[in-house]
């Protein structure tokens, strides 16, 4: 067991669990919660002695005290919400404030689907069969944070898209924390089920409006059925008093397509765990990421793709730009089973360091047990090309603008498969703001 007894958060978890269970109306998860808490106690929080956290210390997170029961009251204004939007007047959006779904702040026009807040779904007996079939079946059982989430999950949403239903409008999910006087701890849980032939696109963003710290431990399970398509876009641009541990698991059936795009621009410490599980042939999986951070921020991407069937493809393209004393981590794994012949797996991680204090630890990995495959991986770490800088400056462009333009071009190809124009424009604007360059869209 890891040495965690001195950590404030660990003691709070053990002390608060009984009170937390009493605060819930439903009971069919109680046994699972108790088991998960026991697993968490046995595992303990990971330290840098653990291989998966070798380059990422979570000590600053676990030494703080947190409020496990956030205040529900808030004073979010329409103007504040408008600033978070992407200009998506034609989208649907769901707003959670301090863990609670607020219909008056949301816009939901989608029909013929099952959409519920996670807490409500847990209380609804008619969804018990669905939960028994899907819930917690692909989320890892052997990590501290996934067990902690199962023990405490209450906030988040459940969405089931029936067979052959195509949701034309993207759905933007906002998780907002505001009016909290203490550091606050959220365990967010999302469950997305996309049945055969269906299609949906989700955008997820987290926002802390307070100066107190927020720790969000989020677990998302995505199930993409045969011939279905699911896209999940994570927009991470929170303030410097926010911690995010995000674990996303996607299981795909034959002939399906699933994409997870992760855009990390803000937050004090962000850890993204992403697992794709292939459960059929002719599957396509796409993972793209752009990270631009500075000061003393840390963003850690851990990805894994499990190729278990033949004739499947996966693509990973992660770009990182690091300034100040920022620290980036990328650990990408591709597993190819011996029966997964004709696999095509591509993995690339490219990084630019803009200062002497910035660091990146990158480790792409392949484990291949089949002999008829096409798999490649690679990583680069460096600075901007001096010849390209000279070329731009020779045409009257200042050094600062030339650097920004090159960095923009460097990051831009990681968002080429975004087919939501307002989202693509928002990412482009954030890139321009981070790089301090004027770019017309």
How would you describe this protein?
This protein has 441 residues and is an alpha/beta fold. The chain is built from 10 helices and 19 strands. The strands form 2 sheets. The chain has a 10-stranded mixed beta sheet with strand order 2-1-5-7-9-11-13-15-17-19, with helices on one face. A 9-stranded mixed beta sheet has the order 3-4-6-8-10-12-14-16-18. Strand 1 and strand 2 form a beta hairpin. The N and C termini lie far apart (53 Å). It comes from Chryseobacterium lathyri.
What spatial form do the alpha-carbon principal axes imply?
A: globular
Mean pLDDT across the residues is 90
> Can you tell me the residue ranges where pLDDT is under 50 for at least 5 consecutive residues?
1-6
Could you give the distance between the termini?
Answer: 53 Å
Strands, count: 19
Protein name: Fe-S cluster assembly protein SufD
Family: Belongs to the iron-sulfur cluster assembly SufBD family.
InterPro entries: Fe-S_cluster_assembly_SufBD, SUF_FeS_clus_asmbl_SufBD_core, SUF_FeS_clus_asmbl_SufBD_sf, SUF_FeS_clus_asmbl_SufD, SufBD_N
Organism: Chryseobacterium lathyri
How would you sum up this structure in a few lines?
The chain is of the alpha/beta class and 441 residues long. The chain has helices spanning 8-22, 30-43, 59-62, 78-84, 118-123, 128-134, 144-152, 386-393, 399-412, 421-435; strands at 92-97, 100-101, 114-117, 157-161, 171-177, 184-194, 199-208, 214-224, 229-236, 242-252, 257-264, 269-278, 284-293, 298-307, 313-322, 327-336, 344-353, 359-368, 374-382. It has ten helices and 19 strands.
